[in-house]
Amino acid sequence: MTNQSNADPKRELLRHALATVAYRGAKALRDAPANFSEFDPEKGVRPAGKLLAHMGDLMDWALSIAIGKREWRDSQPLAWERKWNAFLRL
Fold first, then answer.
1. Is the pTM of this model over 0.90?
2. Coil, strand, or helix at residue 80?
3. What are phi and psi of 7, to 5 degrees?
4. Along the 90 residues of the chain, how does pLDDT read in single tens digits?
5. How many H-runs (helices) and E-runs (strands) does the chain carry?
6. 80 within 8 A of 70, measured Cβ to Cβ
7. Distance in angstroms (rounded) separating the CA atoms of residues 64 and 88
8. What backbone torsions phi and psi does residue 88 show, to the nearest 5 degrees?
């Protein structure tokens, strides 16, 4: 835990933002049915599994920028249980 007197405000903001995404994402996905990954709301909208994979790609891309590489990956959706468990590890 950081000492508030010497905490980097930018780092704390990023930490809070990522924690919020993880919390809200986990809350939305908790107890989702096994076939939720394939749910396709309408043409032109990503199915839930592809959307979750894209969110992971965005976070991975941000990390690559932070370490000076700027590398994009276009991940394919994993099995729903693996996606859910990977998301919870954030």
1. no
2. helix
3. -70, 140
4. 545 556 788 888 888 988 898 888 888 778 888 788 888 888 888 888 888 888 889 888 988 988 999 899 998 887 766 655 666 665
5. 3, 0
6. no
7. 20
8. -65, -25
First CA to last CA across the chain, in angstroms? 17
71 closest CA partner among 82, 88, 59, 83: 59
Residue recorded with tokens 């998301």: 87
Residue 30 burial (CB < 10 Å; 0-12/13-18/19+)?
Answer: exposed
pLDDT in the model for residue 34: 76
- Nearest Cα to Cα of residue 52 among 65, 63, 37: 37
DSSP 36-73: GGG---STTS--HHHHHHHHHHHHHHHHHHHTT-----
Instruction: Match 């939305």 to its residue by tokens.
Output: 28
Q: Which amino acid is at 10?
A: K
Q: Return the amino acid letter for 4.
A: Q
